[in-house]
Amino acid sequence: MSRDIEKRLGYHFKNTRLLTEALTHPSASSALSPSYQRLEFLGDRVLGLVVARLLIERFPLEAEGDLAKRHAQLVSRETAAKAARTLDIGPFIKFSKGEFDAGGQGSSSALGDVMEALLGAIYQDGGLAPAEALALRLWEPMLSLDLTPPKDAKTALQEWSQARSLGLPVYTVVGQSGPAHDPRFEVKVQVGGYAASGEGASKRAAEQLAARSLLDRVDA
Fold first, then answer.
1. What is the pLDDT of residue 150?
2. Is-catalytic flag, 140?
3. How many domains would you assign to the chain?
4. Residue 132 appears among annotated catalytic residues
5. For residues 130 and 113, what is the distance between their CA atoms, to the nearest angstrom?
6. Could you say which of 40, 44, 125, 132 is catalytic?
7. Which is it for strands 170-177 and 184-191: parallel, antiparallel or unpaired?
8. Choosing from 40, 116, 132, 186, which is the catalytic residue?
9. How confident is the model over 130-142, as pLDDT tens digits?
């Protein structure tokens, strides 16, 4: 199994325990088999650096604020999960039976976390160069080449509502589920008689998805 995942990553581990750790969900961890959380913490920083440097090189004339918008989109958990799905990493993640039966393999939260943990593991094992090579292989195709930076859904919804004198959108957390290590939040947004909901791994992500859902509805 390790050879198969290494082939997908394009990297051979000298310390295979790092690979095992990066693929271990918190629900399946133990004193002898730690979860991916520490490596995810490291991988998040590695990814942030690689993406920041990529954006600086790709958009040399763009202002810091616009670069920050692109960066936030590219290092989001949803984008990391998309990268993980490109490699079909889900079947390699070790879950508890309960978490597996609950659909953990397809969870964007788990997939995004593991993708970052794998970057952290590669960095720990071989340094920045191989971690950067993997990140660029997966993230560069997702880099928007639009002349204008991406606009987050909450900003777009606020501009839409203010242009119609509807006031500011109001976001409310209406539900929370899942274990402490993998929570899910449901947020409802309301403005001018319109409403929509979104669910995400964080309140911020759920707000963005709710705003996007409402924008899709009013633009339909």
1. 72
2. no
3. 2
4. no
5. 19
6. 44
7. antiparallel
8. 116
9. 999 999 999 998 8
